[in-house]
Amino acid sequence: MRNLFSTRVKIVLLAAVLVAAALAIISGVSSSTPLDTVVQGILAPFRSAGTALTSAAEKYYGYMFRYEALAAENEVLEKRIAEMEDVARQADSVSRENERLRTLLDLKKTHEDYKLVDAYIIGWSSTDWESKLTINRGTNAGIQENLCAITANGQVVGLVTAVGLNWAEITTVLDSTLEISGTIATSGYNGMVRGGYVENNRSLLQMNYLPSAAIIRNQDQVVTSGSTVYPRGLIMGYVVDAGFEETGVAKYALLDPAADINSLEQIFIITDYTTEEETAAAQGKTGESTTDETTIATMPLG
User: Fold this and answer.
1) How many other C-beta atoms lie within 10 A of the C-beta of residue 121?
2) Which positions ≥6 away from 199 have C-beta within 8 Å?
């Protein structure tokens, strides 16, 4: 019996007692059982991971919610901006239309004998020798070939050379095929104005057949001489240089076109006008009529 409780057994029993005492103390302090404590210890890392995942999910959901809200707000703002831009375009269109009507009214006041059709440019065609414009008016607006095109300031643009129902083609003064009789306003010298002459500077016009003794000054104004196609006094350009032709018999002048052809948006077609001859004839008839009435009025009765 003495050897029944050896030292090893005593140690084991002592350890068991200590463990039991520890478990008893833990059980007394906490309402959890030892098994619960073990399970909680095992689940602790998973709970931590779950908490982190839940937090990340909440943050992502919040981000998605804010993103959708911002996207919806952005869509509303884009719609408002589009509406404002549309209103601005309409206002600009109305403003330009009013300006167009004022311009047309001023032009008609300046040239009461002109019948005018306004048109917008819808196409351009330009090479070294050719310069043409296409407008949005045609035969349905009374336009036909060989009518003069001008700006609101009475500057020559060119000549109608082709026409359709709702379009027309204008050959401009820069085109080498178009030749117009012109006069230097300050001196009265006459010549023929044509485009496409000047090497390396097709934007200039050249006035040929000027007298060799002609005195030509820079910035002299050149206007139309007047014909059945071009009314007299329309501005074609301004002198920037002059010289003798190759024959040495006549002079030429280089002109800067009055109309800025490449930046035009609107032009006017002269569909009819009263020539100076017609005006003079009308005045003569008026004078004759007045004389006849005066004679009749002063004749003695019976």
Assistant:
1) 16
2) none
For residue 297, the surrounding DSSP H or E stretch is helix 276-298
- pLDDT tens column, 106-165: 776 777 788 899 999 999 887 777 899 999 999 999 999 999 999 988 999 999 999 999
C-beta of residue 225 within 8 angstroms of C-beta of residue 194 = no
Q: Is 45 exposed, middle or buried (0-12, 13-18, 19+ CB in 10 A)?
A: exposed
Backbone angles phi, psi at 209, to 5 degrees: 65, 30
Cβ pair 223, 183 in contact under 8 A: yes
Q: How many alpha carbons lie under 13 Å from residue 298 in its C-beta half-sphere? A: 6
- Cα separation, 271 vs 114, whole angstroms: 8
Strands (E), the chain: 115-126, 131-135, 148-150, 156-163, 168-172, 179-184, 190-195, 205-211, 221-224, 235-244, 250-257, 266-272
Residue appearing with tokens 């070294």 = 128
| Position with higher pLDDT, 78 vs 59 | 78
Question: Which residues contact residue 227 at a Cβ distance below 8 angstroms, ignoring those fewer than 6 apart?
Answer: 181
For the stretch 36-69, pLDDT in tens is 555 555 555 655 655 666 666 666 666 666 777 7
CB 176 within 8 Å of CB 152: no
